[in-house]
Amino acid sequence: MSEVTLQGENPSPEQLTMPNCVGQPKAVPFWVVVPTLNPGLKAWADWIAALKAQHSQPQKVIIVDSGSDDGSLALTQSEAFSLFHVKALNFDHGGTRQWALAQALQAAQNEGHSSPEVVIFITQDALLAHPSALQNLVQAFANPQIGAAYGRQLAKPHAPWMECHARAFNYPELTKTLGLSDRVHLGFKTCFFSNAFGAYRLSSLMAQGGLPAGLPLGEDTFMAAKLLLSGQSLQYQASAAVYHSHNYNRLEDFQRMFDTGVFHAQNNWLLQSFGKPEGEGIRLLNSQWAFLKAGPQSPNKLIGLLQIVLANGVKLCGYKMGIWHRFLPQGLKQGLAMNKSFWHQRK
User: Fold this and answer.
1) How far apart are CA 244 and CA 154, in angstroms?
2) Alpha helices in the chain (DSSP H)
3) CA 132 → CA 116, 135, 273, distances in Å?
4) What is the chain's Cα-based Rg?
5) Which of 38, 214, 261, 347 is deepest in the core (most CB within 10 A)?
6) What is the DSSP-derived secondary structure letter of residue 25?
C-alpha cells in the first residue's frame, strides 16, 4: 500500500497533480466511454473543459446518449467525439457501455486503426478534479498484474454531511492494490469498484466477455469480481480524482438499495465468493457515528443520529426487499426500482 499526498475532501490542485511514480512513465493508449442523458448544458460544458485540460488525452472519446433534449447534445456534436444513440428504455448499465465500446472498436478496425490498451468509463456527473486525473489512473496499468483500476471520488461542494462521509469512507487517501487473497480480511469490499471513474485493461475486459448486460446496476462490481477470480488484481488509485457525489432523498436511497438487493440476488456467486456485505454495513455505521462526532460540517449530534438511523433503516429495507424481489409482482418491482428500464425490458 502506497501513501499519496491528498489531504481532506477538497485537496488543492498542487496536491492532486503530483506524479505517482518517479520518472516519465510509458504512455498508455486509452479511450474514454461516457453514457449521457440530459447532463445539463453548463455542467456538460464544464465536463468537456475538464477533459480538455488533461495532461494525457484519450485517443478517442465515445459518447452513448439516451435521448438528451437539454441542449447538451449539440455541444457533444460540436466536439470530435464518437457519438452513438440508444433509446432511454433500452439503456442497460453494462450492456449499453459495452455495445458503444464494441461499435467504436469495430469502426477503428474498419479504418485500420489500432485498439487502445486501456478503456476508461466515466459518468457525465463525474468532473475530473485535476489535470493529471486520467494520466494517474492509466499509470496503474504499468503493472501487468492489474486488470482494472478506479479513481478517488470527492464530494461536490455543498454535499450533505452523510454524502461527504460516504466519499471519505469508500475513497480514502491511500492508494492500494487488491488481489483475491484480500477477501480473507476485506470480504465483499474486495470487489468494490465504480464505473463512475473506472478503467479496464481492454484485453482483460474482453477475455471476461465484456461488461455484462441484464443487471439493474453493479456491472462494475461484477467485472471486478470476475477479474479477481481469474487471478488478476485491482488498483484503487487515490491520486486520480473526480468530483462525484449525490444528494439522494430517502425514496431514492430505498430505490438504489432495492436495485442493489436485486443485483445480489441475481448473482449469488458474488456472495459465495466474497461473503455477504452485512459486515461492511456495521463498519459503515460505526464510521458514520465517528464522523458525526468529529466532523465540523456535521449537524447537531441528535439530528445527525436520527439521520443515520433513518437513512440506514430505509436502505436496509430497500436492500432486503430487493433480495426477495422474486416474491413481488412485476408492477411493484418497477415502482420500487431506481433503474425502471431494467424491469420495463422484462415485461
Assistant:
1) 6
2) 13-16, 41-52, 72-77, 93-110, 133-138, 161-170, 183-186, 202-207, 219-229, 250-266, 268-274, 278-294, 301-323, 330-336, 340-344
3) 19, 5, 35
4) 20
5) 261
6) P
Q: pLDDT tens for residues 269-307?
A: 999 999 988 777 788 988 998 888 886 666 688 888 899
Chain centre to alpha carbon of residue 95? 15
Between CA 63 and CA 210 the distance in angstroms is 18
Cβ pair 196, 242 in contact under 8 A: yes
Q: What is the pLDDT of residues 58-78, one digit of tens each?
A: 999 999 999 999 999 999 999
Q: What is the pLDDT of residues 329-340, one digit of tens each?
A: 999 999 999 999
Between CA 80 and CA 62 the distance in angstroms is: 10
Fill in the amino acid letter for 16.
L
Residue 14 confidence (pLDDT): 39
- Residue position matching grid coordinates 424481489: 325
Which range, of 3-7, 197-201, 212-216, 220-224, averages the lowest pLDDT? Answer: 3-7
197 within 8 A of 179, measured Cβ to Cβ: no
Q: What is the 3-state secondary structure (H, E, C) of 131-163?
A: CCHHHHHHHHHHCCCEEEEEEEEECCCCCCHHH
- Which residues, including other chains, have CB under 8 Å from residue 311's CB and lie 6 or more apart? 162, 250, 253
Packed helices 301-323 and 161-170: angle between N→C axes, nearest 10 degrees? 60
The overall average pLDDT reported for the chain is: 91
% of residues, the chain, pLDDT over 70: 91
Side chain identity at residue 132, one-letter code: S
**What residue ranges define each of the domains in the chain, with the CATH number in brackets?**
27-247 (3.90.550.10), 264-339 (no CATH)
pTM, 2 dp? 0.90
Residues 6+ away with beta carbon under 8 Å from 72: 36, 38, 39, 40, 41, 44
